[in-house]
Amino acid sequence: MSTFHALRVASVDRLTDDSVALTIAVPPELRSLYGYAPGQHIALRRHRGEGADGSAGADSGSAAYTGSEVRRTYSLCAPSSDAPETLRVGIRGIEGGDFSTYAVKELAPGDTVDVLPPAGRFVLEPRPGHFAAVVGGSGITPVLSIAATLLAREPESRFCLIRSDRSTASTMFLEEVADLKDRFPHRFQLVTVLSREEQQSGLPSGRLDTERLRQLLPALLPVEEIAGWYLCGPLGLVEGASRAMRELGVPRGRIHQEIFHVTDAPAAPAGEAARAPGAGADGAAAARAAAVTATLDGRSGSWPMNEGESVLETVLRHRADAPFACKGGVCGTCRVRLVSGDVHMERNYALEEDELEAGYVLACQSRPLTSAVEVDFDG
């Protein structure tokens, strides 16, 4: 089971007025543990009330800080490595965001931050072919790693990046994307759309909605020849791009997506009840007296659930080492295999159809519909 390690911040580079690139040093003895594939993310953790040096604040009252912790996942933006000397992520400040505000305004070189080893399935291992991405805002972060790794390691590959931002001033990683265009002029295609600023050349300003993408994509690319589409950014952009591609006949297996910023979004219809054979019908009554059995890091335990709890919340009361990050159904860190019983997922922005069909659910979003539920974090 992956555990957090306290790592030193090497640099904090300002990208825009509200975003930074955070570079974290990895000591030699941990580098193999922090190897990552292009497109993966890491979870960062701090405790509310910590000072910038990572120590508990003056009002903590004891050496062992008892305040609540904050975890967030951030995508790695550098080319992938099996033994990285550093980890680099892009962080955009969100109004009211506990960790993003801390990272953008307070973190400084020399500070420490708790870091989980990389995870995530929004990846593209380098291989020949023509690939494309539609990204919005900070959604550029994992796609930058994907494109840079692919183009550098696979000479028989091409990549088209279609990115949407509010304005030039708000665009993250401008220099890094320009560098890709300079290094791979014949294999890297860049299309930029600004929603709140007119450009001197290129596409007119405006949002990339379903209708616009349905018309734009065939004019830019041989849609039927694209081996993989990578969609990343706000919920509306990703859902709109996905609809456009389905209307254009793109096979579902070629579309990969990762959602950013869904805090206020309604429950996702993709997260419908995940059922196992023999599931009971009286879900409401069963949920009031449910118990969960969980296998985690080779050890199993069974515990009664409090009314209204998710599977993850119950497990965390007894096993503090249970993996999680966003608790919003986005990152997939808490993915478990449903061994038996019946649960309902309120949101699912992380699991693909084949994972759902194989019996995987998100523990943070799963609530029982039967009196007994068994999950496997190791499965």
Automatic annotation (TrEMBL):
Which Gene3D superfamilies does the UniProt entry name for this protein?
3.10.20.30, Nucleotide-binding domain of ferredoxin-NADP reductase (FNR) module, Translation factors
Alphabetically sorted, this entry's keywords are: 2Fe-2S, FAD, Flavoprotein, Iron, Iron-sulfur, Metal-binding, Oxidoreductase
**Residues of the FAD-binding FR-type domain:** 2-125
Q: Is Flavoprotein found in the keyword set?
A: yes
What cofactors does this protein use?
Answer: FAD
Coiled-coil ranges from the UniProt annotation: none
The UniProt entry, under Pfam families, shows: Fer2, NAD_binding_1
Ranges of residues in domain 2Fe-2S ferredoxin-type: 290-379
Name the UniProt record assigns to this protein: Phenylacetic acid degradation protein
Question: What is the protein's species of origin?
Answer: Streptomyces daqingensis
